Amino acid sequence: MPLSRWLLIAASFFSVPSFADAVDFDVYTSLPFALLIILVLSLTLYNRKLQHRNQLVIEQQQTLQGFLQHSDDAIAILDQNLLPIYINPRLATYCGTAVTPAKKLPLYLDKDGSQLLLPKLNLTANWHGEAWLKTANSDASSMLSVAITRLQQTPPSYLLIGRELCSLTQTAGDTQSGSLRDNQTGLINRNALSEYLHTCASFSNNLNPTFALLLLKFNQLLNADGVKPVLFLSDIIAELSRQLQKIIPDGHILARYSNDTFAIVIPPHLCHVQLEVQLNRLTQKMLLLPAKVTETRNNISLQPLIGISIYPLDGKEPAELLLAASTALSNIARLGHSGLQFANSKFQQRAPEFRLLELELKKAMLQGEFDVYYQPRMSIGSNRVIGYEALLRWHNPKRGVLLPQYFMALADETGMIADLDKLVFKKCCQQLQYWQKNGLDRGRIALNISNFSFSQPDFVSALTQQLSVSDLKAEQFELELHEDILLQSDANTLSTLQNLAKIGFHLTLDNFGAGISSLSVLRNYPLHSLKISPEYIQNMEHNEQQRNLTATLIRLASYLQLDVISTGIENEMQAYLLHVMGCDILQGHLFSKALPASEIPALLAKENKLLRKAIN
Fold first, then answer.
1. Is residue 187 helix, strand or coil?
2. Is 351 exposed, middle or buried (0-12, 13-18, 19+ CB in 10 A)?
3. pLDDT band at 212 (very low <50, low <70, confident <90, very high)
C-alpha cells in the first residue's frame, strides 16, 4: 500500500467520518489501521515505562550517592590493577591529596608504612582484614578494618570498604585493644566474639566435644500509663554489664553483641556432662537480673530473652551458631514473655523439666527423701566383705527411686551438693554405729566427695565434728576423690589432703586411668588407694590390649604401695582375670548391687557363697 494511502487513513482517524464514508470504508484497510493504533499505544506505554524506570534508577543513584557521600565508612572502587576509580569524601578526608588515579591507596600492613597492603593481595576472592591508612604529607595513621569485595564483571573491579578502629593518636597496642572492646561496657565486641567462637571450635575434642553460645537480649517495655520513660536501656547498659559479670562463672566469655544484646560463651572445658542442667541454672540467674538492676528505678521495665545454640548440634561455624541462637531468640520473643529458648528441640523439650526438678530437690532436702544404699566390696584373699561404698538414692514421690546421675549434676550446679555430702556422711556414721553394736561392721565405708564440697572452708571441720558427735574414728571411712580435685595444684588442696590423712581418713583416687595427670597425682599427694576406671574393666575379657593396660595399672599401684579397687565387675571372667593380675578388692553387680542398709545382714549371711561362685 502506498504511503499516501497510509497518511489518508491516519488523517481519517482524527476526523469525524460520515455514515456514507463508513459504509464505503474498505474492509481490507481496517486491519492495518488497527495495527497502527496498537503500535502507537504500545510505544506510548513503553516510553512511559522507560521514563519511570529511568526515574527509579536516578533515585537509586541519588540514594547511593548520598550514602557514599555521607557514610562514616571509607569507600573506594578499584579497577583491575587495584587503582582507585572512585573514593568517597570520608576516604578523601583520611587521605587528603595522597590519592590520585595513578597511585594505589596508602593502605599499609604496619603502622610504619613500610609495606603497601594492596600489592600483597591476590584478590581471586573476597578479602577481609586490618590495615594502616597513612596520608602522604603526615606521619599520622589510622587503623581500619578493611573488606574488599570482587565485583562480578569483566574486567574485574573491586569495592573497598574500611571502618576506623582507633583515633589517630592511639598507639598500636591501644589500637588493637580498642578494636576488640565495646566503649560503653568495656566488654569484647562482636568481632572478637567471632574469633572466640573460632577458638572454641578449634579446641573441641573427644574429651570436650561441645560448647554453648547464649544471646541475652533486653527489651524495654512501655509504661502502662503511657508516660514517656525517663530512663532508657542505653542509660543502664553499663550497669547490666557489671551485674552480668558478677553472675557469669569464671572462664565464661561475656561480650557485647549489639545495642541491647549480650553474648555468653561457655568454652568446651567448662561444659559439664549434663549441659542442660548447667545452662538452665545459669539462665535462671540471668532472667532475674533485670529485676535487681531496675528495683530502684521505677521509670524503666526490661524483659529478658535468651536464645541458646550448642556446638556442633546447631552449627560448626560461628555464623551458624549465631544464626541459630538469634533464631531461638526471635522464637521466644514471639511468645510475648521473658524466658529461654534452645535452638535444638531436644534440649528445649527438657528445659522445663530441670527447673521443676530443682524445686523438687530443694523440697526433698527438707522432707528427708534421701537415703543411702551400700554396695559391698569383696576381698578375694579373705573371702569376706571388707567394706562398702555409700551411694545416695532419692525416693521421689512422683518419679520413684532416682539414681545419682539423675540429680547430682543439678545439685552440683545449685550448690546443694555440699549439703548432700554432709547428709551422706551423717547417715553413714549413724549406720556404722548400728552395725558396730550388732556385730555387722565389715570395714571402711567409702564416700564420694564432690569438688564443690572439698573446696568449702569448713569441709574438714564438718567431718571432724560429725565424727566427734558419733564417737567414731576417721580410719573407719574412705574418701573417694576425683582427679579434678587433685589437679588443683595449690597450697589449699595439699593442706586439706594432708589434714585429712593426718586425722586418719583413707584417701582414694577415684576413676584412675581416665585422666591425663594421674601419675603426677600419685606422686604428689598422700593417697592410700586407687579405683581403676570402669572403662578398663568393661569387656576386658574380649580385649587383650585392655587387659594389658589394666595389669600395668595394678602393677604400678603395687610399686607405689597403694591398694587397688576394681569396680563394675559384671561377670565371672572379669573377676578371675583381676584376681590373676593381683587385684584383691572387687566390687560390682556380680557380687551384689547397692542395697538398703536393712538388706545387708542377709547379704553377709551368704558372703562366702557369693565369692566362691564368682571365681570358681
1. coil
2. middle
3. very high
